[in-house]
Amino acid sequence: MACVVGSLGRMDRTSRTVRLAGVLAATIAGAAPAGAASAPTRVRLDGVGPITLGMTRADAAKTGWLSNPHRNCPDKGTVANGYELHGAKAPGGLGASVAFAGGTLRAISLEKGARTQTGVTVGVSTLTRMASAYRAAGYQVKAKRYPTVGGTYVTVRRKGIIVVQGFGTGKLVQTLGLPFIPVCA
Q1: pTM of the complete model beyond 0.85
Q2: Average pLDDT over residues 7-34
């Protein structure tokens, strides 16, 4: 809408009315203007959409969100224990993957198109903003830079248990993990 509003001042009155009517019709129909980004998918501390921490692989598959099975740590075994969340029913703008252990969903990694209940958006919010938002919501927060991985982790705990983790190599949150970001060791 900002692009349309910015161009309205350079049109005559008739053109503005026609253009505004077109934008209004597209909005009512639920269509987004060409090139508009979809709204980030809301994530909870226990999951995203129908994907919930602790669910079985079979139940997660039934959601229609799983795709592209893979091994999270390629040098650790031969069984696929990870999936991308790009299945037929998953939101198009979401960049995420899940990790299973023992047939149970243990972690969700979100790399684009995700927003937490505290307003932290992957690729938009700073790590400092993430720490402040969760502190203000009553969580224990620790931010620590790890030179060996070239980035900073923001670890959020509730009653001493990790509930969400953020990571970035610069100022922005590049990855969110529920409850943590899995790493291969």
Answers
A1: no
A2: 33
